[in-house]
């Protein structure tokens, strides 16, 4: 069974990927309830943390019920990263994860996220210094490389392991690919097949069906799957994968009552955590998936995503249950 430091995980664990504005405490709680084995916060700026920026600090909130939970940080400045390790430790996470994979320009241009893939020496020395600074397990999330011509992930992963990184999650795309094309899991399997590698190697990218997860496990031999987009507005995905592993069959999709209930709890937890205004606003992106595929749904979706008032959104949920309660979702 894979272990991250002393954290014991089940066979082929499913990890909720860090996702900006998505992987917040309410969503993590729902994913955890529905089978995620490890959850991560969205990436948090080390510069924001050391400047005590309220937005960054709030992202450190974690809850007992979601453990094991990893807090993900990013940055390219050693001092800032080390100082932020101390700040992060106060939230008592189970894992500190370093983001070496974010492809967006504003992050990359500062040498952080995937930008660091151009400077493997810095990537290794930052990781080493962070491992030495904390007793918590340090893990890394990264991409295959900067671009196709510079894929050195086997060597990079081994070096990260050698400086004490406790697990690595690899998104099977390069920075140059952003989110285009298909994730390539072959180089991730090469990392896993390196006989010197003994830390867990988790695969990431395009695990969007139970079959894909099975393929990652059985054909690519990886230690677990990190799941991002397939879970947005669909936290049931984790249990669906586990059910498929166990039975070879697809679990029945959640019915309307379960979906309305999840949307309702999601919104309520978001309001409790960040207040009505932000809670209403930031939960909107999930509704499309909660209620995907329902014909003639636009009017109701519009109510959910345009109303600023929580009571109106809750009323829209009631209406949906009333009107579409018998709708049969296909698997
Ligand atoms: C909305 C969104 C936000 C993301 N934010 C982060 C982030 O904060 N940190 C990170 O390491 N990756 C981030 N990612 C990348 C995902 O963690 C993951 O690597 C990527 O989506 C591929 O996995 P998937 O095909 O399962 O979605 C983000 C992806 C999306 C779609």
In short:
With 331 residues, this protein is α/β, with parallel strands linked by helices.
Q: How would you describe this structure in keywords?
A:
44% helix; 10 strands; alpha/beta; TIM Barrel; Non-ribosomal Peptide Synthetase Peptidyl Carrier Protein, Chain A; globular; nucleotide-binding
Description of the structure:
The protein is an alpha/beta fold and 331 residues long. It has two domains: 3-247, Aldolase class I (TIM Barrel, Alpha-Beta Barrel), CATH 3.20.20.70; 256-325, Non-ribosomal Peptide Synthetase Peptidyl Carrier Protein, Chain A (Orthogonal Bundle), CATH 1.10.1200. 44% of the residues lie in helices and 14% in strands. The chain contains 14 helices and ten strands. It has helices at 25-33, 46-50, 54-58, 78-89, 105-108, 120-133, 153-162, 186-193, 210-218, 237-247, 256-274, 276-290, 298-306, 310-324, and strands at 3-4, 7-8, 14-16, 38-45, 69-74, 95-100, 138-143, 167-171, 201-204, 224-227. The strands form two sheets. Strands 3-4-5-6-7-8-9-10 form an eight-stranded parallel β-barrel, surrounded by six helices. Strand 9, helix 9 (210-218) and strand 10 (224-227) form a beta-alpha-beta unit. Helix 9 crosses helix 10 (237-247), helix 11 (256-274) packs antiparallel against helix 12 and helix 11 (256-274) runs antiparallel to helix 14 (310-324). The two termini are 30 Å apart. 45% of the residues are buried. Flavin mononucleotide binds at residues 17-20, 22, 42-43, 72, 99, 101-102, 141, 171, 204-207, 227-230.
């Amino acid at each position: 069974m894979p272990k991250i430091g002393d954290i014991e995980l089940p066979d082929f664990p499913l990890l909720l990927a860090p996702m900006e504005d998505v992987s917040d405490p309410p969503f993590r709680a729902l994913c955890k309830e529905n089978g995620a084995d490890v959850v991560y916060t969205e990436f948090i700026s080390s510069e924001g943390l050391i400047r005590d920026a309220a937005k960054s600090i709030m992202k450190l909130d974690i809850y007992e019920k979601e453990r094991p939970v990893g807090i993900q940080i990013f940055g390219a400045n050693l001092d800032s990263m080390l100082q932020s390790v101390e700040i992060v430790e106060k939230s008592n996470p189970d894992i500190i994860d370093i983001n070496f994979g974010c492809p967006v320009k504003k992050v990359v241009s500062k040498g952080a996220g995937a930008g660091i893939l151009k400077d493997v020496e810095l990537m290794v020395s930052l990781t080493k210094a962070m491992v030495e600074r904390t007793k918590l397990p340090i893990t890394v999330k990264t991409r295959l490389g900067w671009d196709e011509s510079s894929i050195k992930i086997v060597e990079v992963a081994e070096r990260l392991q050698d400086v004490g990184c406790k697990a690595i999650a690899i998104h099977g795309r390069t920075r140059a690919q952003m989110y285009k094309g298909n994730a390539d899991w072959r180089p991730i399997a090469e990392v896993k097949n390196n006989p010197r590698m003994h830390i867990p190697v988790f695969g990431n990218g395009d695990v969007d069906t139970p079959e894909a997860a099975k393929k990652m496990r059985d054909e690519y031999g990886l230690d677990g799957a990190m799941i991002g987009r397939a879970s947005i507005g669909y936290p049931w995905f984790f249990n669906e994968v586990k059910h498929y592993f166990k039975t070879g069959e697809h679990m029945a999709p959640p019915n309307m009552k379960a979906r309305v209930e999840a949307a309702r709890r999601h919104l309520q937890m978001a309001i409790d955590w960040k207040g009505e205004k932000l809670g209403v606003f930031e939960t909107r992106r999930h509704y499309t998936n909660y209620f995907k595929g329902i014909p003639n749904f636009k009017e109701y979706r519009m109510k959910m995503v345009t109303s600023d008032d929580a009571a109106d959104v809750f009323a829209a949920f009631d209406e949906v249950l009333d009107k579409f309660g018998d709708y049969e979702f296909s698997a």
